[in-house]
Design goal:
Layout lengths: L2 H13 L5 H21 L1 E6 L4 H4 L5 E3 L1 H10 L4 E5 L2 H10 L4 E3 L15 H10 L5 E4 L4 H5 L3 E3 L4 H7 L4 E5 L2 H11 L2 E4 L12 H10 L4 E4 L5 H6 L2 E2 L2 H10 L4 E5 L2 H10 L4 E2 L15 H10 L8 H16 L1
Length: 325
């Protein structure tokens, strides 16, 4: 059996109920081509949990949330890192590997949170609140990280805040995540007005309607959802912890309040469990990353990530502190 045939059979077993076979065969051809390019170029592919299912189930060497992938980026000995995620993630990989080539398989692949704040905004907040430590969510660009004391992810945000010797913390830029962390830690968080364009769409009414029709459903909400949605849910944590929760739980039916591709990926890996399809919200930025673009990134060495030298060291320090936590 050829590499392409093996990939096709794997995709068919996991995604055959939701994607036509003809499309899966095309995806398998692309994945086999990418695997060959990866070997030729001594590359590693990192795949975020929000990647579309056919990509997620084939080419990544490592899959996970932004914290897990940052750790893998820091450890790799490969010459090229291909980051199947959005731009701030690829920038983080570059900060941790300044001498390696980091490729983002999309021309932009931005983020509503990252674009909600600038380095100048952080400097203004520092001036307004002198001496107050600044925590920046990893969903920010490198120039913002460089103005911060430490970064965090949704998975370690509370631990990062608790590690700081201060009752007051500037927490940027996600106001919903900040509110959820403030509730968990009891600390005063000075917040920004950023929101994730996916997670802000989920409402308590969505949860109430599901519980009315499917009362046995376990509801998992990402902490970028509003505090009201998080409170009304059964579990709220990072994407990787949501994946582990579904895998280890005895419940038979789940609803994920997060980017909808992750629901497809969890359903593919847990065929004995039912995933409700309320989630129809796709991140337009994550959706820019495709198998075709990943192949072309490797083939033509395109969309390379560069971080200006003058901000690299400061931004790297904030990220390394996060990884240490």
């Amino acid at each position: 059996m050829t590499s392409k045939e093996k990939i096709f059979e794997n995709l068919k077993s996991k995604l055959g109920k939701i994607i036509p076979e003809a499309e899966l065969y095309i995806k398998a051809e692309l994945a086999a081509e990418i695997e060959e390019l990866k070997r030729e170029k001594n590359a590693v592919i990192l795949g975020h949990n929000y990647m579309e299912a056919a990509l997620y189930q084939t080419i990544p060497d490592f899959k996970g949330d932004s914290l897990e992938l940052a750790r893998k980026a820091a450890e790799t000995d490969k010459d090229i890192i291909v980051f199947c995620g959005v731009r701030f993630m690829a920038e983080t990989a570059k900060l941790l590997n300044p001498t390696k080539t980091v490729l983002l398989p999309a021309k932009k692949a931005g983020c509503s949170l990252a674009e909600s704040i600038t380095a100048e905004d952080v400097r203004a907040l520092r001036k307004k609140y002198p001496g107050v430590p600044v925590v920046s969510y990893v969903n920010t660009y490198a120039d913002v990280k460089a103005e911060s004391d430490i970064c965090c992810t949704s998975g370690n945000a509370a631990r990062v805040v608790e590690s700081l010797n201060s009752d007051t913390v500037i927490f940027l830029p996600d106001e919903y995540l900040a509110a959820n962390v403030a509730k968990e830690t009891g600390k005063k968080l000075i917040t920004w007005h950023g929101k994730c364009e996916v997670h802000e769409k989920f409402t308590v009414e969505d949860i109430q309607n599901v519980r009315k029709q499917f009362p046995d459903t376990v509801i998992l909400a990402h902490p970028e959802c509003s505090p009201e949605v998080v409170s009304a849910s059964d579990f709220s944590q990072s994407t990787s912890k949501m994946i582990s929760y579904v895998k280890e739980s005895k419940a038979s039916r789940y609803l994920l309040l997060t980017e909808c591709s992750m629901g497809d990926n969890i359903a593919a890996e847990n065929p004995d469990k039912e995933m409700l399809r309320l989630c129809s919200i796709r991140c337009p930025h994550m959706n820019e990353i495709t198998l075709e673009e990943t192949r072309d990134a490797l083939k033509y060495n395109q969309y390379e990530i560069f971080v200006p030298q003058e901000i690299q060291e400061k931004a790297r320090r904030a990220v390394e502190r996060m990884i240490a936590i």
